[in-house]
Design goal:
It is a single chain. The chain is mainly alpha-helical. Helix content is 67%, strand content 2%. The protein has a two-stranded antiparallel sheet with strand order 1-2. A hairpin with a 2-residue loop joins strand 1 and strand 2. Helix 6 crosses helix 7. It is globular and about 75 Å long.
Length: 459
């Protein structure tokens, strides 16, 4: 196996790599530390390399990303100033947030430059991601056994959050970064004994699956399984592991499901919620004339507008909270269809006409529609299509012919899992989500320009 050699790295490169390695751990520490780390990366990178970072030819994806950020700033500024003029608001939240959001554009081009110049060590990055995920997994196991994690955070009913405390996002973190741990050993370490390598990978898969189930974040667990199945299908070397992976997954899940009452209830409830979404037009959900009459008399239909919808002359109940949130996104989009109300304006615009509004509609695309309108939606949608064509279709599907493990592979699958349109998500514009999206996006775009996707020359 290869060893980590840092003796040939200059001081600037070492500092940059340390900051990027700590960036993953910053997701665990929280938004304050994450923002501080991003700020330090931007500041120190600017001091070290100055205008070299942007002194490069922009490709088509870079130009679309610049356009997107400029649009976010312009539409948020215009709407915020207009609302001030109309006395509809007294704060500058949307304007300030749009300015601060520009830090992700700067971060994107910094990473693009560092990968192009081989300043960032991807080996260092993969090791850091693996270490962070293993720490979270082991902390979850510790919390299961002792009732508290190593920091003293108590287990929450039906879910284990590990070092994230009262934020139930441990599963999301594992799903986002565990793939780097699985690719670390095949890419960067040479094993004479392939059986040993296969054993290590399957042990890691078992650890990640177990921690995901205990974390209770059902969508991240589902997407981890789907990503693994997709990798097995597309990577020729992995196809023989399809049935072993299915067996391991079913064994771990059924064992946890039937041996832990909290897990049993939690995932049985998930099955119930899926049925509520799939069978939304079930006759059982149709409100009778009597129920409608009583509702209108008592004002319930007005107060619970988000919990009903009309289709072909019938009024249906929304029995799933996610459907209610999705509907709130759709109705808020209708207020400013073409240009949106600016970022961080969802709850303000939603509550103008509708009750029971959340902070966001729990879907990236509905949030972008509501806050940036159709124009903003088309910009980001075109960006994602362009990235898909240039990375997955051309670089991965056509050029690699699935013959080798490649550095770009985990980034591609993780990025498209993150932006998958039909799933419940957090807010696109929050610190954690935005940092992750543009971190992965910048690496996908940069690696797609590389001719050699196997060697890592820094370490």
């Amino acid at each position: 196996m290869s060893s980590l050699n840092i003796s040939n790295i200059d001081r600037k490169t070492l500092i940059i790599n340390c900051l990027f390695s700590l960036l993953i751990f910053s997701f665990i520490a929280g938004n304050l530390v994450l923002n501080l780390n991003v700020f330090l990366i931007i500041l120190i990178s600017t001091l070290f390399y100055g205008t070299k970072i942007i002194n490069t030819r922009f490709n088509s994806i870079d130009k679309i990303i610049i356009l997107f950020f400029l649009y976010v700033f312009a539409i948020s500024t215009f709407n915020n100033i207009y609302d001030l003029y109309k006395n509809e608001t007294e704060d500058l939240t949307s304007l300030i947030k749009s300015i601060l959001f520009l830090r992700y554009l700067i971060l994107y081009f910094i990473i693009r430059y560092f990968i192009k110049e081989n300043i960032i060590s991807l080996k260092f990055f993969f090791i850091s991601a693996f270490s962070a995920v293993m720490f979270v997994c082991l902390d979850i196991f510790y919390q299961l056994i002792f009732g508290n994690d190593i920091f003293g955070f108590k287990a929450i009913e039906r879910r284990l959050s590990g070092p994230f405390g009262d934020e139930i996002i441990a599963g999301s973190f594992i799903q986002r970064f565990s793939l780097f741990g699985l690719f670390l050993f095949p890419i960067f370490f040479r094993f004479k004994n392939k059986r040993l390598l296969n054993l290590i990978v399957f042990i890691l898969i078992s650890i990640f699956l177990s921690a995901l189930i205990l974390a209770g974040n059902r969508i991240p667990l589902l997407f981890f399984i789907l990503i693994m199945i997709a990798l097995i299908i597309f990577e020729q070397k992995l196809r023989r592991f399809f049935f072993p992976f299915i067996i391991i997954t079913l064994t771990i899940f059924t064992t946890a499901y039937f041996s832990n009452t909290n897990i049993n209830y939690h995932f049985h409830n998930f099955h119930k919620k899926i049925k509520q979404i799939v069978f939304i037009l079930s006759p059982e959900n149709i409100l009778s004339e009597e129920e409608l009459e009583i509702g209108f008399k008592e004002g319930d239909m007005k107060n619970n507008l988000f919990y009903t919808f009309e289709y072909k002359g019938n009024v249906y109940k929304l029995t799933n909270s996610h459907l209610k949130e999705f509907k709130s996104g759709y109705l808020t989009w209708k207020i400013n269809k073409y240009f949106g109300g600016g970022i961080k304006t969802f709850i303000k615009n939603c509550s103008k006409k509708y009750p029971n509004c959340g902070n966001h509609p729990h879907n990236y695309y509905l949030e972008i529609l509501a806050e940036l309108g159709l124009l903003g939606f088309f910009i980001i949608f075109y960006l994602f299509i362009l990235v898909f064509l240039k990375t997955f279709v051309i670089k991965y599907f056509r050029d690699s012919e699935f013959k080798n493990y490649h550095l770009i592979t985990p980034f591609i699958f993780l990025f498209f899992a993150e932006i998958f349109p039909i799933k419940s998500t957090g807010s696109f514009f929050t610190t954690g989500n935005a940092t992750y999206i543009f971190l992965i996006l910048s690496m996908v775009v940069s690696l797609a320009e590389r001719k050699n996707l196997i060697e890592d020359k820094v370490l």
